[in-house]
Amino acid sequence: MLIVIAVLLLLILFAVSGPKNSLVLVIAAGLLFAAIMAHSAHAAEANNSATFRLRGCDLTERAVSGQRLTETEAMQAGFCFGSVNATMYILDQLKLVCFPENGNVGIYIKVVRKYLKDNPKALAEDWDEALAFAAAEAWPCPKEKGS
Predict the structure, then answer these.
(1) Cα gap 75→98, rounded to integer Å
(2) What is the pLDDT of residues 9-27, one digit of tens each?
(3) Largest Cα–Cα distance in the chain?
(4) Could you tell me the pTM of the whole model?
(5) Using CA atoms, how far apart are residues 44 and 127, in angstroms rounded to an integer?
(6) Which residues are CB-neighbours of 39 under 8 A, at least 6 positions away?
(7) Cβ neighbour number for residue 140 with a 10 Å cutoff
(8) 97 secondary structure, DSSP code
Protein backbone atom coordinates (compact mmCIF):
# COMPACT_ATOMS: atom_id res chain seq x y z
CA MET A 1 0.00 0.00 0.00
CA LEU A 2 2.81 2.39 0.90
CA ILE A 3 4.50 1.78 -2.45
CA VAL A 4 1.28 2.59 -4.31
CA ILE A 5 0.99 5.88 -2.42
CA ALA A 6 4.63 6.69 -3.16
CA VAL A 7 4.16 6.05 -6.89
CA LEU A 8 1.02 8.20 -6.95
CA LEU A 9 2.86 11.02 -5.19
CA LEU A 10 5.69 10.83 -7.71
CA LEU A 11 3.20 10.96 -10.60
CA ILE A 12 1.49 13.99 -9.06
CA LEU A 13 4.84 15.71 -8.54
CA PHE A 14 5.81 15.00 -12.14
CA ALA A 15 2.49 16.34 -13.42
CA VAL A 16 2.79 19.51 -11.34
CA SER A 17 6.48 20.26 -11.90
CA GLY A 18 6.90 18.92 -15.41
CA PRO A 19 10.13 17.53 -16.83
CA LYS A 20 11.99 20.82 -16.21
CA ASN A 21 12.28 20.14 -12.50
CA SER A 22 13.73 16.65 -12.68
CA LEU A 23 16.03 17.37 -9.71
CA VAL A 24 12.95 17.90 -7.55
CA LEU A 25 11.62 14.55 -8.71
CA VAL A 26 14.89 12.77 -7.97
CA ILE A 27 14.98 14.25 -4.47
CA ALA A 28 11.33 13.39 -3.90
CA ALA A 29 11.88 9.84 -5.14
CA GLY A 30 14.88 9.47 -2.84
CA LEU A 31 12.91 10.69 0.16
CA LEU A 32 10.02 8.38 -0.63
CA PHE A 33 12.38 5.44 -1.10
CA ALA A 34 14.03 6.19 2.26
CA ALA A 35 10.62 6.37 3.94
CA ILE A 36 9.58 3.05 2.43
CA MET A 37 12.83 1.36 3.48
CA ALA A 38 12.54 2.73 7.03
CA HIS A 39 8.98 1.45 7.24
CA SER A 40 10.01 -1.97 5.89
CA ALA A 41 12.91 -2.25 8.34
CA HIS A 42 10.64 -1.35 11.25
CA ALA A 43 8.05 -3.92 10.13
CA ALA A 44 10.71 -6.62 9.75
CA GLU A 45 12.10 -5.83 13.21
CA ALA A 46 8.63 -6.00 14.77
CA ASN A 47 7.98 -9.32 13.02
CA ASN A 48 11.07 -10.89 14.57
CA SER A 49 10.17 -9.99 18.13
CA ALA A 50 9.65 -12.81 20.58
CA THR A 51 6.07 -11.61 21.07
CA PHE A 52 5.30 -11.98 17.38
CA ARG A 53 7.11 -15.31 16.89
CA LEU A 54 5.72 -16.90 20.06
CA ARG A 55 2.35 -17.21 18.36
CA GLY A 56 3.92 -19.61 15.86
CA CYS A 57 5.12 -21.82 18.71
CA ASP A 58 1.64 -21.84 20.21
CA LEU A 59 0.35 -22.91 16.80
CA THR A 60 3.03 -25.62 16.58
CA GLU A 61 1.70 -27.21 19.75
CA ARG A 62 -1.85 -26.99 18.40
CA ALA A 63 -0.78 -28.72 15.18
CA VAL A 64 1.06 -31.47 17.07
CA SER A 65 -2.09 -32.10 19.11
CA GLY A 66 -3.98 -32.71 15.85
CA GLN A 67 -5.78 -29.39 15.41
CA ARG A 68 -6.10 -28.12 11.86
CA LEU A 69 -4.31 -24.86 11.01
CA THR A 70 -4.98 -22.32 8.30
CA GLU A 71 -2.29 -21.78 5.67
CA THR A 72 -1.02 -18.65 7.44
CA GLU A 73 -1.00 -20.39 10.80
CA ALA A 74 0.89 -23.33 9.30
CA MET A 75 3.56 -20.93 7.98
CA GLN A 76 3.90 -19.33 11.42
CA ALA A 77 4.15 -22.75 13.07
CA GLY A 78 6.71 -23.84 10.50
CA PHE A 79 8.82 -20.75 11.18
CA CYS A 80 8.81 -21.53 14.90
CA PHE A 81 9.73 -25.17 14.34
CA GLY A 82 12.48 -24.31 11.84
CA SER A 83 14.02 -21.47 13.81
CA VAL A 84 14.02 -23.47 17.04
CA ASN A 85 15.56 -26.47 15.29
CA ALA A 86 18.25 -24.33 13.61
CA THR A 87 19.07 -22.55 16.87
CA MET A 88 19.37 -25.88 18.69
CA TYR A 89 21.79 -27.11 16.05
CA ILE A 90 23.95 -23.96 16.11
CA LEU A 91 24.09 -23.74 19.91
CA ASP A 92 24.95 -27.43 20.12
CA GLN A 93 27.67 -27.22 17.45
CA LEU A 94 29.25 -24.22 19.18
CA LYS A 95 28.97 -26.01 22.55
CA LEU A 96 27.24 -22.97 24.04
CA VAL A 97 24.46 -25.10 25.49
CA CYS A 98 24.47 -28.71 26.67
CA PHE A 99 21.21 -30.19 25.43
CA PRO A 100 20.09 -33.51 26.92
CA GLU A 101 20.64 -36.59 24.76
CA ASN A 102 16.90 -37.16 24.42
CA GLY A 103 16.14 -33.50 23.69
CA ASN A 104 14.08 -32.55 20.66
CA VAL A 105 12.46 -29.52 19.10
CA GLY A 106 9.15 -30.13 20.87
CA ILE A 107 10.85 -30.00 24.28
CA TYR A 108 12.81 -26.88 23.28
CA ILE A 109 9.61 -25.13 22.18
CA LYS A 110 8.08 -25.85 25.60
CA VAL A 111 11.23 -24.48 27.27
CA VAL A 112 11.09 -21.32 25.15
CA ARG A 113 7.42 -20.78 25.95
CA LYS A 114 8.09 -21.23 29.68
CA TYR A 115 11.11 -18.90 29.54
CA LEU A 116 9.03 -16.17 27.90
CA LYS A 117 6.18 -16.69 30.38
CA ASP A 118 8.60 -16.47 33.33
CA ASN A 119 10.48 -13.50 31.80
CA PRO A 120 7.87 -11.17 30.28
CA LYS A 121 10.51 -8.51 29.51
CA ALA A 122 12.09 -11.02 27.12
CA LEU A 123 9.00 -10.74 24.89
CA ALA A 124 10.47 -7.47 23.60
CA GLU A 125 13.74 -9.21 22.65
CA ASP A 126 14.71 -10.36 19.22
CA TRP A 127 13.39 -13.89 18.66
CA ASP A 128 16.83 -15.40 18.09
CA GLU A 129 18.15 -13.88 21.33
CA ALA A 130 15.15 -15.18 23.26
CA LEU A 131 15.79 -18.69 21.89
CA ALA A 132 19.44 -18.58 22.91
CA PHE A 133 18.72 -17.21 26.41
CA ALA A 134 15.98 -19.80 26.99
CA ALA A 135 18.32 -22.66 26.02
CA ALA A 136 21.23 -21.30 28.06
CA GLU A 137 19.03 -21.02 31.13
CA ALA A 138 17.53 -24.49 30.72
CA TRP A 139 20.66 -26.40 29.70
CA PRO A 140 23.84 -24.68 30.89
CA CYS A 141 27.05 -26.53 30.29
CA PRO A 142 28.98 -27.58 33.40
CA LYS A 143 31.97 -25.38 34.08
CA GLU A 144 35.30 -27.08 33.60
CA LYS A 145 37.55 -27.37 36.63
CA GLY A 146 40.20 -24.70 36.77
CA SER A 147 38.22 -22.10 34.79
Answers:
(1) 29
(2) 555 655 655 655 555 555 5
(3) 76
(4) 0.64
(5) 12
(6) 2
(7) 11
(8) S
